[in-house]
Amino acid sequence: MSTQPRQLRLGAFMRPVTIHTGAWRYPGAYPDANFNFAHMKRFAQTLERGRFDAFFMADHLAVLNMPVASLKRSHTVTSFEPMTLLPALAAVTEHLGLIATASTTFDAPYHVARRFASLDHISGGRAGWNLVTTSNPDAALNFGLEEHVEHDERYRRAREFFDVVTGLWDSWADDALIRDVESGIFFDPDKLHVLDHKGKYYSVRGPLNIARPVQGWPVIVQAGSSEAGRQIAAETAEAVFTAQTTLEQGQSFYADVKGRMEKLGRPRDHMKILPAAFVVVGDTLDEALEKRARLDTFVHYDSGIASLSIALGHDVSGFDPDGPLPEIPESNASRTSRQRVIEWAERDKLTIRQLAQRIGGYSGLEMVGTPTMIADQMEAWLVGEGSDGFNVMFPYLPGGLDDFVDKVVPELQRRGIFRREYEGATLRENLGLPRPENRFFRA
Amino acid sequence: MSTQPRQLRLGAFMRPVTIHTGAWRYPGAYPDANFNFAHMKRFAQTLERGRFDAFFMADHLAVLNMPVASLKRSHTVTSFEPMTLLPALAAVTEHLGLIATASTTFDAPYHVARRFASLDHISGGRAGWNLVTTSNPDAALNFGLEEHVEHDERYRRAREFFDVVTGLWDSWADDALIRDVESGIFFDPDKLHVLDHKGKYYSVRGPLNIARPVQGWPVIVQAGSSEAGRQIAAETAEAVFTAQTTLEQGQSFYADVKGRMEKLGRPRDHMKILPAAFVVVGDTLDEALEKRARLDTFVHYDSGIASLSIALGHDVSGFDPDGPLPEIPESNASRTSRQRVIEWAERDKLTIRQLAQRIGGYSGLEMVGTPTMIADQMEAWLVGEGSDGFNVMFPYLPGGLDDFVDKVVPELQRRGIFRREYEGATLRENLGLPRPENRFFRA
């Protein structure tokens, strides 16, 4: 009797086009992709060819608050809005999951429930909702609030928001719409529930004016890593995007969140934990390292030096950019990131400029190497319970995406840890998640 | 020297699938079209083949408040949400304008500005925003408000909302995004404007995190007919959907609104007035009348009798449904609609049941006849300044739409009053509307 090895789940982090600050300047990149739908369509179709679980679109509700010197160099400053982009991508793909961020602090539960339900119907069951509480204080100023809502308060609101949204999704029994042409009865009124929610933060009558989503509920995604964030994830999330930079950190996060689920009586495999991984593929290690280094050369010193100072907990803008990093006194503020930067500086013999470019470009978990090396790393995380897969970030587009799909995916498939064909028709089925029962209408 | 005759503009009123209550039961109809994207795609592509200006999706923010007896028979109860459906249709069409309703009472200006700007980029300049103040009091209960906002207050808010949204659309100069790969400058900071709006109802800092829309602004559409509605339309609208039931009424509305524009210094042709027209096409008049009558047989008596009583200003539910309409005393409540119903009853010799089915199905302006007769009527409205075109409602789908495109459109084209090919690349260009200047960055 053979058992299938644990399967890797792969999301693609596609906001905005790619995460790396220098990516739009990489040879062959599409600098205008933020507003060029044809490019987005090509990316989505390539991801589908590579059997990715989902296209994930993060979001901001403001222009990022950065000094103008770095902002003007940032291709992340403006791009398509996720809930309008994803339906368009739904129309040109068949299997790819479509996950968007929506804020529980700056949107209304009725709107959020409705739009995700609609996307789920349009896409035939491929929608996912990344529930965020929005930590960018500039967003508050775009929504009539002088002060940003405080962290824990945001999470209490988020929890109730979640209850309202899922309650609205359950407004209609799955079989409520009869559409009996003969009798003229369009739906069975006994299968329509009026939510009548009156809570601490929200008062929402319902019912939702959208039939129950194809998936019952769109897949619930979260990305918070604070205490409150982990707890709400354990209670509600079915996929978690996280930012663990080492396997040990990943294992600790994985054990913590899955442990919380167990305490709540939720089966551990009803949530997929997917750390962000920045993947640079080369036919040789040298080629991969060269691509990685080349990418950093497209990051302007101005965009990186402030980030480097923050990571070190020490202002280094006064030092010679082309000299080595001098000894930096310890600070309590950011011990982990400080340590990582110092290790990089020593290992790769980087100048302050190069360090600034590294940090200003991207500074989370990365996998740089041959397809075999990358598959080894991914497998180690999977087998070692550091994750259930990854939310992949491509270093530049379309090249970095093409390389991953053409070179890494076949290696993962050869090892039997990644699908060759989509298992199901919906995102939920592909992720191996159960379909939620309707709380008002038990089957 | 020949001058081109005035050109007809045609929108398609597609919410939800079609307006007539019995339409989903008509032979050949798609009862599941509300949640079947393949059908919506077919409709949109047919409209494009027929050179329609736009697909218009109306909206409600609640399940319609009707007695269950009629609600359960209504295919309008639940369907796709417009701002998720239209981007999906954008991906499968090339020329068709895409107009959605968004509420100034229950949504935030930053969200509305962003989504319509995004749709405009996704579609290459084909978005339109139907600005509504939302008159359905049930909507308030889905957004945490116990009482609905009062009518004139809604319009004052709407006016400020409009200023904020258009101000946000002007956040970026048209040429702000330089994307200079060589220097690494993505945009020119001097071409980004922070709105910093602080008004009576809204406080919105900006800038919008979406580049200026392809059309400058998506086309501004309105549908209000009250005093406040006409005035805000004259001030801001570029297309007006209206519900005038006779040419005389149409002429009076047209003269009034265009007169208001002139007083404000706006050229009259910077707004297209498009009354709703329910069009039933037959190869003979008899065939068209038979289709029309057949359609009404699919409306249940329960769905019509309440509407009939309201239209007459008198409860007629106690009379014999299969007898003629008895003499109804005059009432002040609804003189025009009462008169129209009595005329129908006499002219078409309708029983109370048939009248109820007529009123319960659809009761606005209709054009029933051969392609020539319909083109005659449309031309009379156009030449007589009753309208600039129509927002066409199809009696059932796909048949009623196919008939219009295959039979009426060629007749309109033959007369030289409707395009054979799209004139421009954007909705604005096809409608013959100017591109708004950016108030912060004059060219």
How would you write the strand order of the largest sheet of chain A?
1-2-3-4-9-10-11-13
Characterize the biggest β-sheet of chain A: 8 strands, parallel, barrel
3D shape of chain A? globular
- Low-pLDDT runs of 5+ residues of chain A are none
Number of helices of chain A: 15
Order of helices and strands of chain A: EHEHHEHEHHEEEEEHEHEHHHHEHEHH
Given this structure, which CATH class of the largest domain in chain A is correct? Alpha Beta
Care to count the β-strands of chain A? 13
Mean pLDDT across all amino acids of chain A = 92
In CATH, the architecture of the largest domain in chain A is: Alpha-Beta Barrel
CATH fold-level label of the largest domain in chain A: TIM Barrel
How would you portray this structure in words?
Two copies of one chain form a homodimer. Chain A is α/β, with parallel strands linked by helices. The first copy, chain A, is built from 15 helices and 13 strands. The first copy, chain A, has helices spanning 37-49, 68-71, 82-90, 109-122, 137-141, 151-169, 227-236, 247-263, 285-297, 301-312, 335-347, 352-361, 371-383, 399-414, 427-431, and strands at 9-13, 54-57, 97-103, 127-132, 177-180, 185-187, 197-198, 203-204, 219-222, 239-242, 272-281, 366-369, 389-393. An eight-stranded parallel barrel of chain A has the order 1-2-3-4-9-10-11-13, surrounded by seven helices. In chain A, strands 5-6 form a two-stranded antiparallel sheet. A two-stranded antiparallel ribbon of chain A has the order 7-8. In chain A, α4 packs across α6 (151-169), α7 (227-236) crosses α8 and α9 packs across α12. The mean pLDDT of chain A is 92. Chains A and B meet through α3, α4, β6 and β8 of A and α3, α4, β6 and β8 of B. Chains A, B: Belongs to the NtaA/SnaA/DszA monooxygenase family. Chains A, B: This is FMN-dependent oxidoreductase, nitrilotriacetate monooxygenase family. Chains A, B: Residues 26-382 form the Luciferase-like domain. Chains A, B: FMN binds at residues 59, 101, 151, 155, 225-226.
